[in-house]
Each structure stands twice: as structure tokens, then as C-alpha cells.
């Protein structure tokens, strides 16, 4: 009897392994569009990187990584503490730590979740690696030529005044600028959190694919091709590039506020400029049009709205803050944000339509296969 149990253990392990590999393979097939987009982006980045010799600016990436690590540490600790307190005080669990760890084990040991995570994160990491190279190559392939036109378009659309002039009550307040800068940098936390949580979701829904496909599409179409076609640096670099002093007052106001409350945007802008001029190694790229900050904030809002009305309201308000921040911190012309938001809505709808058609075609093909006379005869 003992020999029989011992002999069956390897067999059971092999069956479980084959089952998991089957789940993983099925997940890969479901994610084939995302894998194709990631692979295509890598091929494009390889060609562009070979042509330009461009490499990402790891100095800026490290700075953002530090913010994210601190934020995730705080949020993760707060979540764990909150869960433990809820178990102990609300549910009156006699062993809250044991229950929490058991629940965590089920979470990370779920085969469907692991399959979705590996496929989603794999496609996402391949794509993100490519975008770092593509974004840094924009100014090399297409020198800045649209800043004056975009600045003029801003004035036309805003009744003869630059958008930051309408928002001067914010610009002249160091505290307001600091708060907006915190929100603007928090965008990176929201970005990574959103992409990560969508990737590791257990349920592989159309909404999940719509988010990830929209994310990849807007960074490729807007963040590279459109950005290269209307290559621009943004207000913070306007004077440095010799286009005039239209934004001198704005940058001076930011410098004044920085002496009271550190305005992180200024330091990041200096790092980007150093990468552009060759003062530092590499560059993650300077590019203003369209605003991917605003575009992604709109994507967060579109996704959140489908999940929860309250979450949607919060994220639309966040998108509004990002739009204002992009202007008052000197990163973007207002038209950059308008274009980014419009492009994102169009891409979101297009991806939703494509996925609906894709699901219908796949279902029709599967139904046709199931009803095949040859198969029925078997």
C-alpha cells in the first residue's frame, strides 16, 4: 500500500504539471494579440536603436523607480496592516496572521492567475523595454519643429492668452504647485499599479485586454509615431531651444516656488535636458505632443468607470489634475493634453470594437470546427 502511494506521487505531480502547462499555453493563445504587439514593438525598437544608437536614460528611470519602490512599500504595508486589523477587529478572527498568510498563499498559487500574470507581464515588459528606446529616439529622428505652432495654437484656442496665464492663480502659489507636482509624480504609481493589477487579474476579461491593448496602442501610435510627426519639446524647454521667452515668466515662477517647496519637475527637466544635450549618458526622450501623461490618466478613468462609478469619478478628477499639472509645471502645451485625451478615447473605443469582433470571429471559427462533419463522424 505504501509502495503504491509512493509510486503514484510522481504521476500526480506529472499530471499537475501537464495541466498547468496546458493552462499556460491556453493563456498564451488568449494573449496572442498582446504578445504580437510586444514583439512588433521590440522589432521596431531594435531597428530604431540600431539606427540612432539611442539608449534609455537610466538616471531618470532610477529616480522614478525609487518613488515607486517607496510608494509600493507604503501601500503594501498599509494593505497588509489594514487586512490584519479587519480580520482581528471586525471579523474577530482568532488567528488573523494565519488567515492572512493562507489567503495570500491561495492568491499567489492560483494557476489561472499565474498564467495570466506570466503572459500579461511578459507582453507588457517586452513592450515597455521597446518604448524606452523609441521615445528616446524621437528628437534624433525628428528635431523639434512644432513648438512655436503649438504655442500659437494654444493662444488661439484660449482667447489670445497662454493657458498657464489663465491658471496664474495656481502658478503664483508655491503650495498649490507642490501639491500638483505630488499628484503629477503619483501618476507613475497609478500607472504601474494599474498595469500590474490588470496583468495579474485572475479573470481574463475583454475589459482587461481592452486596457492592455489601449495602453500599448497609445504609446506606439501617440508616443512614437504622432510624437515624431509633430516633434516638440514643451514649454519648459522653449527658451532653452531658442524659440523665445514666451514661457520665461512661468519657469521663473516655478523656480521661485522651488525655493520654498521643492518642485521635483524642475530637477527632472534638467535631467532630461542633460540627456538631450549629451551632458549625461542616454536619454528617455523629450517629447511634448501628445501628452501621454494626460492620455494615460484618461485611460485610468475609462477603465475605472467600467469597474465602479465612484472609482470612475475619482479617476476623472485625477485626470483633470494631471491636465492642469501638465500646463502649470511647464511640461506641455494645453493642446498636447487635448490631443492625448481625444486620442485615448478613440483608441479605447477602437480596441473595444476590435476585441468584440475578434471574439465573435473566434467563436464562429470554434463553432464551425465543432460542427465539422469530419469531427462529427469521429
From TrEMBL:
It is a multi-pass membrane protein. The chain crosses the membrane at residues 33-50, 70-90, 123-146, 166-199, 211-230, 282-303, 310-331. Gene3D superfamilies: Phosphatidic acid phosphatase type 2/haloperoxidase. GO terms for cellular component: membrane. Residues 149-348 form the Inositolphosphotransferase Aur1/Ipt1 domain. The keyword Transmembrane applies. It is found in: Membrane. SUPFAM superfamilies: Acid phosphatase/Vanadium-dependent haloperoxidase (SSF48317). Keywords: Membrane, Transmembrane, Transmembrane helix. PANTHER family: PA-PHOSPHATASE RELATED-FAMILY PROTEIN DDB_G0268928 (PTHR31310:SF7), PTHR31310. This is Phosphatase PAP2 family protein. The lineage of its organism: Bacteria, Pseudomonadati, Pseudomonadota, Alphaproteobacteria, Hyphomicrobiales.
Amino acid at each position: 500500500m505504501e509502495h503504491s502511494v509512493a509510486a503514484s506521487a510522481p504521476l500526480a505531480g506529472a499530471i499537475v504539471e501537464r495541466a498547468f502547462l496546458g493552462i499556460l499555453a491556453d493563456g498564451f493563445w488568449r494573449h496572442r494579440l498582446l504578445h504580437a504587439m510586444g514583439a512588433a514593438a521590440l522589432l521596431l525598437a531594435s531597428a530604431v536603436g540600431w539606427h540612432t544608437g539611442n539608449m534609455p536614460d537610466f538616471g531618470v528611470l532610477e529616480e522614478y523607480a525609487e518613488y515607486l519602490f517607496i510608494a509600493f512599500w507604503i501601500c503594501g504595508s498599509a494593505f497588509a496592516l489594514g487586512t490584519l486589523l479587519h480580520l482581528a477587529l471586525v471579523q474577530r478572527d482568532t488567528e488573523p496572521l494565519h488567515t492572512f498568510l493562507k489567503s495570500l498563499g491561495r492568491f499567489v498559487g492560483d494557476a489561472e492567475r499565474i498564467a495570466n500574470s506570466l503572459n500579461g507581464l511578459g507582453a507588457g515588459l517586452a513592450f515597455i523595454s521597446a518604448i524606452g528606446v523609441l521615445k528616446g529616439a524621437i528628437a534624433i529622428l525628428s528635431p523639434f519643429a512644432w513648438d512655436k505652432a503649438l504655442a500659437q495654437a494654444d493662444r488661439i484656442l484660449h482667447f489670445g492668452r497662454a493657458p498657464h496665464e489663465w491658471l496664474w492663480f495656481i502658478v503664483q502659489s508655491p503650495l498649490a504647485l507642490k501639491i500638483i507636482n505630488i499628484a503629477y509624480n503619483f501618476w507613475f504609481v497609478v500607472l504601474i499599479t494599474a498595469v500590474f493589477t490588470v496583468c495579474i487579474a485572475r479573470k481574463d476579461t475583454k475589459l482587461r485586454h481592452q486596457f492592455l491593448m489601449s495602453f500599448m496602442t497609445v504609446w506606439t501610435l501617440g508616443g512614437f509615431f504622432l510624437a515624431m510627426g509633430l516633434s516638440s519639446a514643451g514649454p519648459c524647454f522653449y527658451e532653452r531651444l531658442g524659440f523665445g521667452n514666451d514661457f520665461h515668466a512661468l519657469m521663473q515662477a516655478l523656480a521661485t516656488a522651488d525655493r520654498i517647496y521643492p518642485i521635483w519637475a524642475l530637477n527632472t527637466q534638467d535631467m532630461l535636458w542633460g540627456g538631450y544635450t549629451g551632458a549625461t549618458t542616454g536619454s528617455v526622450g523629450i517629447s511634448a505632443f501628445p501628452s501621454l501623461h494626460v492620455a494615460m490618466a484618461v485611460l485610468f478613468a475609462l477603465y475605472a468607470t467600467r469597474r465602479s462609478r465612484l472609482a470612475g469619478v475619482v479617476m476623472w478628477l485625477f485626470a483633470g489634475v494631471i491636465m492642469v499639472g501638465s500646463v502649470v509645471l511647464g511640461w506641455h502645451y494645453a493642446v498636447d493634453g487635448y490631443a492625448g485625451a481625444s486620442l485615448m478615447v478613440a483608441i479605447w473605443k477602437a480596441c473595444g470594437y476590435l476585441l468584440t469582433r475578434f471574439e465573435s470571429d473566434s467563436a464562429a471559427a470554434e463553432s464551425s470546427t465543432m460542427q465539422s462533419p469530419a469531427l462529427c463522424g469521429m
